[in-house]
Amino acid sequence: MSTSRLPKLRPLDIKPTVHQGRPSLFLRDPLDLSDRYMILPQALGPALMLCDGEHDAAAIHAALTVRYGLRVDRDVIEQFIQALDESLFLENERSREAMQKALEAYRSAPYRKPALAGNGYPEEPEALRALLNGYLQDVTEIVPLPAHGKAVLSPHIDYQRGGHVYARVWKRAETIAREAELVIVLATDHFGGFNQVTLTRQHYATPYGVLPTEQTLVDQLAARLGPEQVFAGELYHRREHSIELVVTWLHHMRQGKPVELLPILVGSFHPFIENGGNPAEDPLLNTLLGELRPLVEDRRALVVASGDLAHIGPVFGTKPVGIIERADLRALDDALIERLAAGDGPGFWQIIYRERDRTNVCGVAPFYLTLQTVEAAEGERAGYAICPADEHNTSVVSVCGIVLG
Hints:
The chain is α+β, with helices and mostly antiparallel strands. The chain has two domains: 90 residues, no CATH class; 294 residues, LigB-like (Protocatechuate 4,5-dioxygenase, Chain B, 3-Layer(aba) Sandwich), CATH 3.40.830. It is built from 16 helices and 13 strands. Strands 4, 5, 6, 9, 10, 11, 12 and 13 form an eight-stranded mixed β-sheet that branches. A three-stranded antiparallel β-sheet has the order 1-2-3, with no helix packed on it. Helix 13 crosses helix 16. The longest helix has 19 residues. The relative contact order is 0.13.
């Protein structure tokens, strides 16, 4: 390959791992433009940062040597860049062509296929029904709210770990879910851009059938927010699990009866924390809220926020979780849940901002936007759990469920 090329890395899912006993980095494309992944020695992490579109192979080699003290053969750097290119991990003509083909295939399909069916949960309707009913049978003390409820804050963790919390919150929301005429889903975009709103016109399928996306509303919302912006990351819908896992429960509680969806992925609010900003002052988010609020007022619409709480421990780049850390986590979660149950979006955000989101709450954006959409709705905690995230139980994810009436 030519050393004059200026490799620029696409947005990737990069996680620490251990490979053959050595600290390593696992690279995967969240858009799945190819079926490849890469495992690199952790020491080569700086080489990834240097793939910024401004350094060629020679400059990357020199920077690694001078700036980082890494002695790596020039041939290794060129092979490294070539491997990134062949995996479609670089922003160039090859990856753009692959993305266009993937987008055309996604849009031309009759619906978005369940990405986790057959892996994260049963693909066959009867087996799925038995699984979810099993969770529901263990929460017989939960009484469904009347149909006037406005919002559900649901986890999106896998069913194996969070099934009992899903069951508690969705049993509480059973009547609301069955009576809804429109379901607006605000869900965590784990891989999309910061403070980004991503739409799709594609329908969502579950093992029970197809939940149609209300395409007229999508088009109206896109026109207000900017079509180029809101469809730029549309392919994230293809593999993102945060909408899929909650609408599968929604479809189950409706006994397989379809309902129109407005599926929305929302990106991280971390720039507000880093820059001292406030989501309440963001023009894009205010436009989004201005479009969603009338839908809740004018139609029997249910807003579903798909998000989990804390992600801490070595798996998430923080220190191991022990007794003290668990107690601290529980106290912070209780404070956040209190604000969520009170329908207090600004108060919820104040805690996140004050704490610098030190527990990595992945539901910040959907939770905040849902509270700001339904406005002044109050509810109560329907479920909570701290779930293991590694085999040593030193990394954990906490989840909660709340129904706002």
